[in-house]
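Mods, move this if it's the wrong board.
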Amino acid sequence: MSDTSPVFGGETPSRPRGSLRTSVVWDVLTGALDDRAKAAGTDVLDVLDTGGGTGNFAVPVARLGHRVTVVDPSPNALFALERRAAEAGVADRVRGVQGDIHGLFDVVERGGYDAVLCHGVLEYVDDPAEGLRNAVDALRPGGALSLLAAGLGGAVLARALAGHFTEARQALTDPAGRWGEGDPVPRRFTAEQLTGLVGGAGLAVGAVHGVRVFADLVPGGLVDTEPGAMEALLKLEAAAAGLPAFHSIATQLHVLGEKQR
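Not the wrong board. Structure tokens:
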């Protein structure tokens, strides 16, 4: 295997500001990939990244030595993915195809993957349950699903702290978790809703983590200028991520699932 340190957005992995958004998910994901590789008796997994865009996760996963297929509806994103993979030296392990999760098997093989990433997808599809079933159907027996979606509680808290109390209440009571017509996110979830979807799709629900529990609430100037603040905040995020008490205020929620053998 190659270097396991991810590089997101072209930043170095030592203290990337972007790691506040990705470090928890990356740690869980790499652990799941290691477990799957050991169970499958191989160093190289076939990984599918649905809605993987420009390769924020796909390229680092390929740098671990795995083969990654990215399905995304945007030709521009796939072009950027190709360029990023080439710059990272993993062009031979990353393949981009245009499509979406509802027409997934028009472009990829059913049951052909050891792991599927479904990050930032369910918020935008018409039928989250159907989309998730397709992701599951792409897995081999024993395969792992990494599901990341917008959290309801984080949006409510953010609107309230910004003084938009009516919008906070609207998000809290809206079935889709939206705070108003100007909300750019079509749908948000609670941890219970996400684990229900994962279980309903036939997977065993594993770890659940809150992502960006504090990162979106801390002033950026403090993190950028205070010595040691970035490292301390990363450690705080890691410590809180797995605690159920903090899932309800996280900006995003991550659920790990496993397909039965």
